[in-house]
From TrEMBL:
<dbReference type="GO" id="GO:0046872">
    <property type="term" value="F:metal ion binding"/>
</dbReference>
<keyword id="KW-0067">ATP-binding</keyword>
<protein>
    <recommendedName>
        <fullName>tRNA threonylcarbamoyladenosine biosynthesis protein TsaE</fullName>
    </recommendedName>
</protein>
<comment type="similarity">
    <text>Belongs to the TsaE family.</text>
</comment>
<dbReference type="GO" id="GO:0005524">
    <property type="term" value="F:ATP binding"/>
</dbReference>
<dbReference type="GO" id="GO:0002949">
    <property type="term" value="P:tRNA threonylcarbamoyladenosine modification"/>
</dbReference>
<dbReference type="InterPro" id="IPR027417">
    <property type="entry name" value="P-loop_NTPase"/>
</dbReference>
<dbReference type="GO" id="GO:0005737">
    <property type="term" value="C:cytoplasm"/>
</dbReference>
<keyword id="KW-0479">Metal-binding</keyword>
<keyword id="KW-0547">Nucleotide-binding</keyword>
<dbReference type="InterPro" id="IPR003442">
    <property type="entry name" value="T6A_TsaE"/>
</dbReference>
<keyword id="KW-0819">tRNA processing</keyword>
<keyword id="KW-0460">Magnesium</keyword>
<dbReference type="Pfam" id="PF02367">
    <property type="entry name" value="TsaE"/>
</dbReference>
<keyword id="KW-0963">Cytoplasm</keyword>
Length: 142
């Protein structure tokens, strides 16, 4: 387990970038944290680490966005609005989870029953006592 203190959004972006640079095919990252903690900033850094140059935003209403212009295909899931885990079958999640790309899932707790045993979990938490932009980022499973 690794705990990183981020004091500004750029720190969160850089951690995402570092993890993106190190990501291997078929790796699944579960990104957890409340609304507004910096999940999108982390994901943008992660995509940059994969060499993706197109804009990255949260696929809240589409569930998944695929990016193919990096060194590996990148599947960015946001399952916040998923009604039932069976919707993941319709999306074809298995091709993403077990293919040649890297998967990052926001709100992964909503689909725990279909996640493989081996995932990397990234949890971003605020602590307003340490400042408005402070984040504690915990990485488990690497």
């Amino acid at each position: 387990m690794m705990v990183i203190e981020s004091w500004k959004p750029e720190d969160t972006f850089e951690l995402g970038k570092k993890l993106g640079e190190e990501a291997d095919p078929s790796t699944i990252f579960c990104l957890n944290g409340d609304l507004g903690v910096g999940k999108t900033v982390f994901t943008q850094g992660f995509a940059a680490g994969l060499g993706i140059t197109e804009p990255v935003d949260s696929p809240t209403f589409t569930i998944v966005k695929q990016y193919d212009d990096g060194r590996l295909p990148f599947y960015h899931f946001d399952v916040y609005r998923i009604g039932d885990v069976s919707e993941m079958d319709e999306i074809g999640y298995e091709d993403c989870f077990y293919g040649e790309g890297v998967t990052l899932i926001e709100w992964s707790g909503l689909i725990e029953e279909i996640l493989p045993r081996q995932v990397i979990t990234v949890t971003i938490e605020k602590d307003l006592n340490k400042g408005f932009d402070y984040r504690k980022i915990t990485v488990e499973g690497m």
